[in-house]
Amino acid sequence: MRTCVQFAYLLASIAYASAGILLQNAPQCPEQHGVQAYAHPELCDQFFLCTNGTLTVETCENGLLFDGKGAVHNHCNYHWAVECGERKADLTPYSTPGCEYQFGIYPDSHECSTSYVKCAFGIPEQEPCTPGLVYDERIHGCNWPDLLQPYCNPEAVIGFKCPTKVPSHSQAAKFWPFPRFPVPGDCHRLITCVEGQPRLIACGEGKVFDDQSLTCEDPELVPHCGHA
């Protein structure tokens, strides 16, 4: 059976076949079962797909490119996340209201926001950030609000103002320089202060927050949160 490297070399001879078609007289897929995707040697917005041994040329949707890692849609990834190298790509946007590209992630406001817009097939959907985070256009994802100052006000997002100092014998002081504080009525999250700005932190799965020790513990060790 041909190796993947040999297969990729053979694909170069059919690099400009039309997308979405079954290839005739093409090299045999390295694997005869399952689904495998291979980079197009010349184009970043196309790729070769083997489905149970059947070879086709596929085109990524508008706003997506192929890097072998993407799983946004049909093996493709957001164009800003793909390193094409020498492979060429058509990045002409096909825009619809709220979506520059048919697939993409965009801010939903010109102001600091705890949500963003995710487009699929040209349809925008508002998506929330994890509580305590805000949308950061630089990373196309959500981030700590204190990392977006002065654009964002962490105190307004979290609803908490970090004290300039804490009593030396308090439980919070044990975590200095990142003192911790409980969130009233919340058994799953806490607030920690980083350089004087608040961050909302979630306990891991299966853990609850003990407002006495200011640590995340097993539920049976925190009776009032045992069934939270």
UniProtKB/TrEMBL annotation:
Chitin-binding type-2 domain location: 26-86, 96-154, 159-227
Pfam families: CBM_14 (PF01607)
Gene3D superfamilies xrefs: Chitin binding domain (2.170.140.10)
Highest taxon of source: Eukaryota
Membrane spanning residue stretches: none
Signal sequence range: 1-19
Full protein name: Peritrophin A
Organism lineage: Eukaryota, Metazoa, Ecdysozoa, Arthropoda, Hexapoda
